[in-house]
Amino acid sequence: MARLHRETHRIDRIGWLRAAVLGANDGIVSTASLIVGVASASQGRGPILVAGVAALVAGAMSMAAGEYVSVSSQSDTERAELAKERAELETQPEMELEELTQIYVARGVEAGLARQVAAQMTARDALGAHARDELGISGFTTARPIQAALTSAATFATGAALPLLLAVVAPLGVLVPAVSVASLLFLALLGGIGARTGGAPLLKPILRVTFWGAVAMALTAGVGALFGVAA
Predict the structure, then answer these.
(1) Domain range spanning residue 26?
(2) Do the domain assignments include residue 186?
(3) Which of 47, 180, 201, 209 has the fewest CB atoms in 10 Å of its CB?
(4) Containing H/E element for 6?
(5) Rounded average pLDDT over 56-78
(6) Closest Cα partner for 203 from 122, 211, 15, 80?
(7) How many domains, in total, are found in the chain?
(8) Which residue stretches of the chain are H helix?
(9) Residue 88: pLDDT above 80?
(10) Is residue 127 part of a domain?
(11) Which DSSP state fits 8?
């Protein structure tokens, strides 16, 4: 007896994975860059730690608010489109059936078979079929504002805590290179974890995230050094 082939896909992780990777990446880059910039302009640890803590708190709240607002907007749009589709299914069922048929025809299904498939899908779950095949809305991609906000805030704070911890323990004389190098290693690790979790190749995400992190820290270090010298 033939055994069913079961496949494991990672598309169901796309919502929280995007928010998690974005939050942690921003936490590391923005906090490390600010610490490096302030350290380049200041000789004391106090201002560096104040800047780092402020960056962690403000960044986490900003990420949460930004994710909630943006994903809520997406959710509002999805609900509006589904309400419109529900009304059209009630008032124009034949037109909606033909619309679904043409979607399947455009994907390569023979017209007669496409009509049968559309009819069966409509009988089973008309709104679900149109949401998935016409609007591109599925359970995997549905907007979840609270999940996105909490994930972004938590991962930002976690990412920001790493360079902040180094700013606490590293000797002042080597604080800038220590935070910079360690943060780039954290970013590389983050890029690898994100790629592995999403099933993507490792090298490109790692290079991408470390490159832009290095650019951000180099620019803020230059600004800090400039103002430090000017002071």
Answers:
(1) 13-81+145-230
(2) yes
(3) 201
(4) none
(5) 87
(6) 211
(7) 1
(8) 14-41, 45-91, 93-106, 111-133, 145-169, 175-198, 203-230
(9) yes
(10) no
(11) -
Domain assignment of residue 124, yes or no: no
CB 52 within 8 A of CB 35: yes
Residue 67's alpha-carbon distances to 19, 28, 155, 175, 231, in angstroms, are: 8, 18, 12, 32, 38
Asked whether the beta carbons of 187 and 210 are under 8 A apart, the reply is yes
Give just the sign of the alpha carbon dihedral 150, 152, 153, 154: positive
pLDDT in tens, 166-185: 999 999 889 988 999 999 99
Residue 8 in any domain: the answer is no
Q: What is the pLDDT of residue 31?
A: 92
- Which of these ranges, 26-35, 100-109, 204-213, 222-231, has the smallest mean pLDDT? 222-231
Q: How high is the mean pLDDT of the chain? A: 82
CA dist 210 and 204 (Å) reads 10
Please spell the DSSP secondary structure of 110-151, one letter per residue.
-HHHHHHHHHHHHHHHHHHHHHHHTS---TTT---HHHHHHH
Residue identified by tokens 């919502």 is: 15
Overall pTM > 0.70: no
